Amino acid sequence: MNAEEYERMYRLEDTYWWFVGRHHLAIDLLDRAFGGRRDLRILDIGCGTGAMSELLAAWGEVVSADCSPLALAFSRRRGLVRVCAADAMHLPFRDESFDAVVALDIIEHLPDDAVAAREIRRVLRPGGRLVATVPACPSLWSAHDVALMHQRRYVGSQVRRLMDAGGLRVRRLTHATTLLFPLAWVTRVLARRSGSLHARLVPLSGPANRLLVGVMAAENALLRRCDLPFGLSVCCVAERV
Question: What secondary structure letter does DSSP report for 50?
Answer without folding.
Answer: S
